[in-house]
Amino acid sequence: MTERPADEATEAFVAVRNLLFTVAYELLGSAADAEDVLQETWLRWSAVDLAEVRDARPYLVRITTRLALNRLRSAQRRRETYVGPWLPEPLLTAPDVSEDAELAESVSMALMVVLETLGPTERAVFVLREVFGFEFDEIARAVDKSPAAVRQIAHRARAHVEARRPRVTVSPGEMRAALDTFRVAVMTGDPQAMLDVLAPDVVLLSDGGGVKQAALRPIIGAEKVTRFTGGAMGKAPGLVTAETVVVNGAPALALSVDGELDAVVSVQVKDGLITEIYIVRNPAKLTRIAEETELALR
């Protein structure tokens, strides 16, 4: 067997590394798990014979997808016993990601939360087809299904996601304006200002992972959300500061207590009002906020 030169293998892998990470992250909702998958992908790739590979990109995506699917099936069993809502791990992304509508939408917290409602195979098929534009034959090889089966799965998954994903596209400027109003209301403790920026049926999900205090169930309704946020701020053990950052391709808030990151708050906006709020407090999910993560669709 002819061995692939190490430098050639490395060059091919590095050329699509950001793509592979994005695939793994969108399948798993966890940057830590995605990094582990990439390590495993590299180990398998470095042992591949060059003569067996016609195109490195789909070959590497296939390895990554299979490894991510195995990890996702195990993770879903663990998430069934997770304390409170399980939210995706937020990523600090470059400001220009928010200007790439396709990329920003694909990693938005709103869509990532919807993807959590799909089964592992459905999620893989949806992500590879709708987000990355792979052909059905390529997806079939990645998920070990026939192309006909993949077409049916893709149809079901698309219908499932479309029924639950936000239908209105909001510009980064609109989202930032609503988020700024929300931030001022939170920091000043002004309940009326908070009510003015929240949709009547707003939904708040918070993820403390059983480590930090968080609501164990979704909080629904502007008045209940206002009371919850006001109570949470009142219980803060120190000085709370809020910084606007770009998380998962959209404006978000990084809340710190006495200078230490305590939570990341992402929102969904419609008609200038906040319809969904995602608060991640689990410390294990806040490690990717200090440094930007590079993402890619191609």
Structural description of this entry:
With 298 residues, the chain is of the alpha+beta class. The protein has 12 helices and 6 strands. A hairpin with a 2-residue loop joins strand 5 (260-270) and strand 6. Helix 2 (17-28) packs across helix 3 (31-45) and helix 10 runs antiparallel to helix 11. The model has no long low-confidence stretch (mean pLDDT 93).
Secondary structure layout plus pairing:
Elements: H1 6-15, H2 17-28, H3 31-45, H4 56-79, H5 101-107, H6 109-115, H7 120-131, H8 136-143, H9 147-162, H10 172-188, H11 191-197, E1 198-207, E2 219-220, H12 222-234, E3 240-247, E4 250-257, E5 260-270, E6 273-280
Parallel strand pairs: 1-6
Antiparallel strand pairs: 1-2, 3-4, 4-5, 5-6
Helix pairs in contact: 2-3, 2-4, 3-4, 4-8, 7-8, 7-9, 8-9, 10-11
Question: Which descriptors would you attach to this protein?
Answer:
298 residues; alpha+beta; six-stranded mixed β-sheet; elongated
Please give the alpha-carbon distance between the first and last residues.
31 Å
- Low-pLDDT runs of 5+ residues are none
Strand content: 15-25%
Elements, N to C (H/E): HHHHHHHHHHHEEHEEEE
* Approximate helicity band: 40-55%
Query: Mean of the pLDDT scores?
Result: 93
Radius of gyration: 20 Å
The coarse overall form would be elongated
Main sheet strand line-up? 2-1-6-5-4-3
| Number of beta strands | 6
Number of helices: 12
Sheet with the most strands?
A: 6 strands, mixed
Secondary structure class reads: alpha+beta
What oligomeric state is this?
Answer: single chain
